Amino acid sequence: MFVITGPSGVGKGTLIRGLLEAVPELELSVSATTRRPRPGERDGIDYHFLTTAEFEQRVRAGDFVEHATYSGNRYGTLRSELERRLSAGVPVALEIELQGARQVREALPEAVAVFIAPPSLEALRTRLVGRGTDDPAQVGERLRTAALELEAQPEFAHVVVNDRLGQATEELVRIVGSGLAR
């Protein structure tokens, strides 16, 4: 299992798409969230979109390997998403935020954890604004959260700086390839 984390807007999704193309046997776990779908996102494909009540009920039932609140929304990895793949011998990647990555590291220390970092906070600001999905207050909140998250880099054996997309994708593919060879 591969845990890929980093601040919002750092390009985790883009890097993971490149990773999945390069390592076709790897599958991405679909996270659950209480946030509203963005344009083009599909339930069960991009996320499992749940109401807050549904999410809380599933937390109480123990359905999540990890869960956390990020920017006012709940996110989590459903145990069933992982067990189905891992029991079939399929390597799986999780795209999750830092709180969840820490929980997975505690529960599954054998997981390979990778932190994706921006080249700078200003570059991250540019990406978040350019994405056009958040209002200025949300961008500010995401940047404040990102500044705190970046302090966690020393906790990770692998840190990929997403400055040049091709180079960062190659580095991520190399890390995953080494993990699969173990």
Tell me what the structure shows.
The longest helix has 17 residues. The relative contact order is 0.22. This protein is α/β, with parallel strands linked by helices. The mean pLDDT is 93. Helix 1 packs across helix 7 and helix 5 packs antiparallel against helix 6. The chain starts with a strand and ends with a helix.
**Strands of the largest sheet, in order across it?**
2-7-1-8-9
Helix content: 40-55%
**Number of separate strands:** 9
Average pLDDT confidence is 93
Structural class: alpha/beta
Sheet with the most strands, sense and barrel status: 5 strands, parallel
The whole-angstrom Rg is 16 Å
Molecular shape: globular
Tell me the strand percentage band: 15-25%
- Write the element-wise H/E pattern from the N-terminal end onward: EHEEEHEEHEHEHHEH
Low-pLDDT residue spans: none
**Terminus-to-terminus distance:** 12 Å
Give me the number of helical elements. Answer: 7
Short précis:
By secondary structure, the chain is α/β, with parallel strands linked by helices.
How do the strands and helices of this protein lay out in sequence?
Elements: E1 2-5, H1 12-22, E2 27-28, E3 32-33, E4 48-49, H2 52-60, E5 64-70, E6 73-78, H3 79-87, E7 92-95, H4 98-107, E8 112-117, H5 121-131, H6 136-150, E9 158-161, H7 165-181
Parallel strand pairs: 1-7, 1-8, 2-7, 3-4, 8-9
Antiparallel strand pairs: 3-6, 5-6
Helix pairs in contact: 1-7, 5-6
Give descriptors for this structure:
single chain, 182 residues, alpha/beta, five-stranded parallel sheet, four-stranded mixed sheet, 20% strand, globular
